[in-house]
Design goal:
Helix content: under 10%
Structural class: mainly beta
Mean pLDDT: 78
Number of helices: 0
Strand content: 35-45%
Strand order of the largest sheet: 4-7-6
Length: 106
């Protein structure tokens, strides 16, 4: 008996195993494959609704995660990131709620 516990997706693949039996005079072999499937990414099955805001205003957004599925039924976490957009200031965040204030494009 042996136990395999793959831990990273880099270990995914097909691995041939050769079993050998011997009576001390002759041997026989047989084989089989161990197939390690890669963990698949979760995907959204629902969507968010677009939001409109005017410059000089503050938009309060309370979000909930749209429906999603994970092929392996793993627990999923989520986050929001506006750090790549210099025209917004995140005023506050907490538990799926955040306030946005767009800045003037000067």
């Amino acid at each position: 008996m042996f136990t395999l516990s793959p831990t990273i997706n880099g270990q995914a693949g097909v691995f041939p195993v050769v079993a050998t039996i011997s009576d001390g005079h002759n041997t026989a072999t047989t084989g089989f494959n161990i197939i390690i499937a890669a963990n698949q990414a979760p995907s959204f099955t629902g969507s968010y609704t677009d939001q409109t805001i005017s410059v000089g205003s503050t938009l309060s957004i309370t979000t909930s995660v749209p429906s999603y599925t994970d092929p392996e039924s793993d627990a999923c976490t989520y986050s929001y990131d506006l750090s790549s957009d210099p025209w917004f200031t995140v005023v506050s965040t907490s538990n799926g709620h955040f306030d946005l204030a767009p800045t003037l494009n000067t």
